[in-house]
Amino acid sequence: MKRIILIVVAAMTLAACNNSKPNHTHAAHTAKEDEETSAATDKTKADAVVDTTAKAVVTETAAKTKTDAAVAKDRSLDEVYSAYFELKDALARDNGQTAQQAAKKMQAAVAKIDVAKLETATAAAWKQYQRKLAFDTEHIAGIDENGHQREHFVTLSKNMYALLKVVKPEAPVYYQHCPMYNEGKGAHWLSKQKAIDNPYLGKSMPTCGSTVETIQ
Fold it and tell me: Is 126 exposed, middle or buried (0-12, 13-18, 19+ CB in 10 A)?
C-alpha cells in the first residue's frame, strides 16, 4: 500500500514539474523571433520616413538658397534699367540736358557690370547686348539735342527689350509703341507705367501710342 502511495505522489510531482517548466518549444521561439523582427521592421520604416523628410527639407532649403542667389545676381542690372527709365522720362519732357545726364548714368552702369557675377543665362545675354547698349548711351550722353537723342533711343530701346526678355525685371515693364514717330515708321520704348508717356513725340503728343506687351 505504501508503495502505491509513493508511486502516485511521484507521478503527481512529475506532472507538476512538467507544467511549471518554461515554454521553450520551437513554436514559442519562432513567435518571439517574429515579434522581434516586426519591431525591427517598424523601427526601420520610421527611420526611413524621418530620413526622407530630413532630405526633403535639405533639398528645399538648398533650392531656395540657389534661387535667392540667382535673383540677387540678376538684380545687379537694376541700375541699368533705372537709368534707362530716367532717360525715357527726360525725352518725354523734351528735356535734352536731363536726357544727356541720364544717358551718362546709364553708360556708367553698363560699364561697371561684372559678367562673372551674373547668373549663366544673364551673363550670356549681357555679353550679347553690352556693347550695343554702350554705343547708344555714349552717343546720347554726348549731345543735348532731342532729335538725335531719340534716333539712338530707338535702337537702345530695341536692345533693352531683348535683354529684358531674358533677364526678367523685378516689377512689370510695359513695351509700348508710337505709330507716328519718324514719318509714320513708328518706334517702341519701355516703361514702368502702363499709362502712355511718349518719349518720341514729347509734349506735343504725350499720350500717343499703346502698350503691346507686358514683360514680367
Answer: buried
In this structure, the strands spanning 210-215 and 173-178 are antiparallel
Mean pLDDT in consecutive groups of 10 residues from the start of the chain, 216 residues:
41 40 44 52 52 47 41 71 98 98 98 94 95 98 97 98 94 97 97 98 98 97
Please count the helices (runs of H) and the strands (runs of E) in the chain: 7, 3
What burial letters (b/e) apply to 44-65, b meaning 16+ CB within 10 Å?
Answer: eeeeeeeeeeeeeeeeeeeeee
Select from 110, 86, 109 the least CA-distant residue to 99.
86
Residue 47 parent element (H or E): helix 26-74
Please, which residues bridge with residue 176 across strands?
189, 211
Instruction: State the DSSP string of 139-156.
Output: HHHT---HHHHHHHHHHH
Number of residues in the chain: 216
Count of CA atoms in the C-beta half-sphere (13 A) of 100: 10
Handedness of CA 37, 40, 42, 45 (dihedral sign): negative
Question: CB within 8 A of 216, min separation 6: which ones?
Answer: 168, 169, 171, 172, 173
